[in-house]
Design a protein that fits this description.
By secondary structure, the chain is an alpha/beta fold. The chain has seven helices and nine strands; from the N terminus they run E-E-H-H-E-E-E-H-E-H-E-H-E-H-E-H. Strands 1-3-2-6-7-8-9 form a seven-stranded mixed beta sheet, with helices on both faces. The longest helix is centred in the middle third of the chain and has 26 residues. This is Phospholipase/carboxylesterase.
Length: 217
């Protein structure tokens, strides 16, 4: 099986990691796109390691960057097939990372953006052991109808979405939150007024507060 890799950052405090945050980038980007958030998160999580794997496939809609799955065909069936094909690669990456750091699943959090959020929301509830939490920016839950039958763990989720998003419609926030709640998953949904398809400072602060609480618990 293909192995994912990408940029990492060790704990700001030095020493062994007590927790790890995995950033999952969006379509046409790479791990470097989100690892730049690590220093901000590290201010509140000085003992956390950070990792941002490149998605497994070259982007088929741009001359550079990577994708978790193709979005040329955005039919529900094709998007589900895409996320299902990429999921084992992300699961293997998470398993390997936890083993290397000597940490349990409850010491890992996933932070996704756009397509990376789609991956996080698909993979996390289907893992046998709950991760500490999931933060999803500007994304959506794919194949919501299949989640109740597939769910194996219920990590808390924070969804953050700009109401001026022209890439992933803002109504994805409520639809995703309702579907996750229907599967018994605790969800906090945050609307960012006037924000397009991006991450802003208040959204970063919300994520940091959420993960600090999750790891301290």
């Amino acid at each position: 099986m293909m192995q994912l890799s990408g940029p990492t950052m060790g704990p700001a405090a030095g020493g062994p990691a007590r927790e790890v945050v995995v950033f999952l980038h969006g379509l046409g980007a790479d791990g470097n796109d989100l690892i730049g958030l690590a220093p901000y998160f590290a201010q509140a999580l000085p003992h956390a390691a950070f990792a941002a794997p490149d998605a497994p496939f070259p982007c088929d809609m741009a001359p550079y960057g990577y994708q978790w799955f193709s979005l040329q065909d955005r039919s529900p069936a094709m998007m589900l097939a895409g996320v299902q094909a990429a999921a084992p690669l992300l699961d293997a990456y998470i398993d390997d990372l936890l083993a290397k750091l000597g940490l349990g699943a409850d010491r890992l959090a996933l932070v996704g953006f756009s397509q990376g959020t789609m991956m996080a929301l698909h993979v996390a509830p289907r893992r046998a052991e709950a991760v500490a939490g999931v933060v999803g920016y500007s994304g959506r839950l794919l194949a919501a109808a299949s989640l109740p039958a597939d769910v194996r763990s219920r990590p808390p989720v924070l969804l953050i979405h700009g109401d001026a998003d022209q890439i992933v419609p803002f109504d994805s926030l409520e639809l995703s939150a309702n579907a996750l709640k229907a599967a018994g998953i605790a969800v906090t949904a945050e609307r960012r007024p006037g924000l397009g398809h991006s991450i802003d400072e208040p959204g970063i602060a919300q994520a940091i507060a959420f993960l600090t609480e999750r790891f301290s618990g």
